[in-house]
Amino acid sequence: MRRLPARADYDPAVAYRLFDEAVMCHVGYVLDGVPYVIPMLHVRADDRLYLHGAAGNRTLDAVVSGAAVCVETTLLDGLVLGRSAYENSVNYRSVIAFGQGRPVEGEDAKRDAMTLLLRRLLPPGRLEDVRALSPRELARTKVIELTLAECSVKVRRGPALDDRRDLDAPVWAGEIPFLSVLGTPRHDGAGRTDIPAPAFPDGWAGPPNPR
Amino acid sequence: MRRLPARADYDPAVAYRLFDEAVMCHVGYVLDGVPYVIPMLHVRADDRLYLHGAAGNRTLDAVVSGAAVCVETTLLDGLVLGRSAYENSVNYRSVIAFGQGRPVEGEDAKRDAMTLLLRRLLPPGRLEDVRALSPRELARTKVIELTLAECSVKVRRGPALDDRRDLDAPVWAGEIPFLSVLGTPRHDGAGRTDIPAPAFPDGWAGPPNPR
User: Fold this and answer.
1) Which helix (H) or strand (E) covers residue A181, if one does?
2) B130 lies within 8 A of chain A by CB
3) Which of A72, A85, A211, B54 could potentially form a cystine with B37 if both were Cys, beta carbons 3.0 to 4.6 Å apart?
4) How far is CA A111 from each of CA A138, A142, B31, B98, B145, rounded to the nearest angstrom?
5) How many CA atoms does the CB half-sphere of A74 hold within 13 Å?
């Protein structure tokens, strides 16, 4: 597969939109010289990401140590088929950002960050329908604020860049889009069973792209 | 969101199956003490992943330096809705592996690795229908073999673990699956236009899960 003709973009606003579209990010940090990459849910506000984990989760200590952290997320948009083995690719949008993490302290600040995250992930109105976070639950939650100091976006779009000599090959060439959709909700079998499954109002199509 | 009741599994066979299902991985490495995470396509063979890039891509030098590399991939299976703000989650399958990279040298070895990768990503039979990789194209491609020395899998499945006191809440609770599907193929408008789009034979549903 050939070198992707992707263009780098260092505009933070472009990077922020990608973080807003992706449901998950991949957080890299260094511990004793060894690289670690862990998947996390995130929400962005201005130039910051909020992440969370269990209060007892020691893995997150390295993320809030003040050392450099790398956070990456990638949306795969489609498979690109060309007319040679070389000219195949994927279309994607990817962001790599560097920043520093710090713990969010205090019940109110933690509740604010978790509310941002939950509003982003849950169906509209859901947060109003369920029991609110209790002080004890917030105490059990570690919340991290990651300030994005430097962002780099790469995007590959469009068809393969076939060599002119391959254009007459008797094969179809183009792009096959990847789509993310929601399946049929499955009730958990507990509690009340007389309540219909969520109808995903206002065209809600699930949380940001699960890829 | 509560601490995920995910169970860790250190069986390499379980980790290998996850790498086989995911189309993309996230490769972490350290350069001058700074962590980097980059998205890459991969294919697995035994205890090794094969990655690739352009021959001139300096980013990959750190991956083949022999220093420790971390490679992570995560499949998101669904959104878990509980009866409180706290008891929401995502179901996922994730693997984190550590290993060492080395460059694959020699035209034949590079062709073998790229053929493995292409067979995994392209529709069945496609590789036989297009022009094969030329020696010049292989020379322009850097191929990396990453030996997986240590793997850790985490899986979260099932509904939310609602507190008994929340079970009578008048809300629906359960899981909403995330699905990945293929969209309608878009021809690139070049070359021959009399060839029908691929029909995805043998139940082929796209390359491994694009999430």
Assistant:
1) strand A174-182
2) yes
3) A72
4) 7, 11, 36, 35, 45
5) 25
Residues linked to residue B53 through DSSP beta bridges, in sequence order: B142
* CA dihedral over A188, A190, A193, A196, signed as positive or negative: negative
Distance CA(A22)–CA(A11), nearest Å, equals 17
Asked if B198 lies within 8 A of A81 by C-beta distance, the reply is: yes
Q: CB under 8 Å to B18, separation ≥6 — which residues?
A: B73, B75, B93, B94, B95, B153
**Distance between B202 CA and the closest CA of chain A, angstroms:** 17
Q: Checking phi first, is residue B185 left (phi over 0); if not, alpha (psi -120 to 50) or beta?
A: beta
Tell me if chain A has a CB within 8 Å of the CB of B62: no
At A3 the pLDDT is: 45
Token pair listed for A211: 């890829």
- Position A198 confidence tier, pLDDT thresholds 50, 70, 90: confident
Q: What is the DSSP string of A89-154?
A: EEEEEEEEEEEEEEE--SHHHHHHHHHHHHHHHSPTTHHHHSBPPPHHHHHTEEEEEEEEEEEEEE
Contact B135, B40 (CB under 8 A): no
Q: Report, as an integer, the average pLDDT of A57-75.
A: 91
Touching check for B76 and chain A: CB below 8 Å? yes
Residue B54: HSE in the Cβ half-sphere, 13 Å Cα cutoff: 11
Q: What is the ipTM of this complex?
A: 0.93
> What are chain B's domains?
7-203 (2.30.110.10)
Rounded to an integer, what distance in angstroms lies between the CA atom of residue A180 and that of residue A206? 9
pTM score above 0.80 = yes
CA distance B28 to B26: 7
Could you give the 3-state DSSP secondary structure of residue B198? coil
CA distance A194 to A103: 41
Residues of B whose CB is below 8 A from A38: 72, 96
| Rounded alpha-carbon distances, angstroms, from residue B136 to A86, A159, A164, B141 | 10, 22, 16, 9
User: B20 in helix, strand or coil?
Assistant: helix
Alpha carbon B193 to its chain centroid, in Å, reads 33
